[in-house]
Amino acid sequence: MTPRKRVETMEENRARLITAARRAFAEKGYANASMDDLTAAAGLTRGALYHSFGDKRGLLAAVVNQIDEEMAARAQAIGDRIDDEWEALMAVGAAYIELALEPEIQRIVLLDGPAFLGDPLQWPSQNSCLQSTQTSVRRMVAQGVMAPVDPEAAARLMNGAALNAALWVAASDDPQAVLQRAIDAFRLLSRGLLARPG
Amino acid sequence: MTPRKRVETMEENRARLITAARRAFAEKGYANASMDDLTAAAGLTRGALYHSFGDKRGLLAAVVNQIDEEMAARAQAIGDRIDDEWEALMAVGAAYIELALEPEIQRIVLLDGPAFLGDPLQWPSQNSCLQSTQTSVRRMVAQGVMAPVDPEAAARLMNGAALNAALWVAASDDPQAVLQRAIDAFRLLSRGLLARPG
DNA sequence: CAACCCACATACGATTCGTATGCGAAAGGA
DNA sequence: TCCTTTCGCATACGAATCGTATGTGGGTTG
């Protein structure tokens, strides 16, 4: 059975709504984005939106999901290029801080996401970044590279530190300079998790 | 000159509105809290609210301010009881994680605050917790206890780690057990900032 | 070809916010 | 003492927005 044309256009409209929502949420924030304007910009009406996403939160969830997957892919690509696993983790952390500099990610994923969807780890997307960090930590603990630390806790704290660093950098007057300070502090802090931090 | 009675009652009404707002924001979240219900619960109307706080965001700012000061006082009290400054900082970090377990603090200060008011460090209250952490770090760097790290960056990252740990703990099924794991990981992580972490 | 289904549009009611205006009580001067 | 002004707050109004309930047209199925 070949997919019907109706289905194809529906997927298309879903994608167009998500794209329009990314723009609107990033610019005005979730709370101040009008769904009438949003859907009109996509050439549709609220009818399509409620049919595809249930409600406004459903649309936000879909948007966060999409961005989250993109973030995971980009971070993964950076980590894969480095052989030493610890250095790879540090690079991913730095990359994560830089990622959060993008207004879209900051506004939607870091601010509105937790506020309106709740704890990121319980999102369907499972916050992919955190997930990969956790498995990486688990491996290094097994290898004795890292001290015997709870992998989930370590991943949580490192991500939290990076996240907050990103908010700090983004709000500063001189992002480039502050970015370097943040990354340096991140490396120093992470050192504590090594088996032989000296 | 004695204060006029009108002023006294006005301060009283301000306080009553803030108290009602704390309850409403904590229970329903900032976005879903109705100002009509809010003010009615305080025995007033929206007129008083707009007169005292300008708009809804102004009320949120006042609420966040009040809670933030309470948090700083409680953390300070814990840190003051410990002589060794490093151990005091660790204790404050742990206390901060525990503080964030309270739904009121979590919902209002950690989720809605950043989402609707922007970066915490630029709030009028200046996020007192972070401020004291920063000065503490500065002293220890000068004493050679801590490695030569940027005090602002270190304070930012430590607070971020603690904040995220708290969100994690609060969302978990067994908060007490997870709390211990979070605090242990926090201490291990922070070790990296010491001059001699071995 | 007729009945049906589905994706989406339209119409409507219910909240909620911000502002503009009204009112009563206290303060101050003649 | 009386009149006027000020101030804190209530009331009234308009605008915006969300969710639901209903309508509709093109494609599908029997």
From TrEMBL, chains A, B:
Database matches in InterPro entries: Homeodomain-like_sf, HTH-type_TetR-like_transc_reg, HTH_TetR, Rv0078-like_C
PROSITE patterns: HTH_TETR_2
Signal sequence bounds: none
Gene3D superfamilies linked to this entry: Tetracycline Repressor, domain 2 (1.10.357.10)
DNA-binding interval(s): 34-53
DNA-binding listed as a keyword: yes
SUPFAM superfamilies, per the entry: Homeodomain-like
A Pfam cross-reference name: TetR_N
Taxonomy, superkingdom: Bacteria
Stretches assigned to the HTH tetR-type domain: 11-71
Keywords: DNA-binding
GO molecular function: DNA-binding transcription factor activity; transcription cis-regulatory region binding
Protein's recorded name: Transcriptional regulator, TetR family
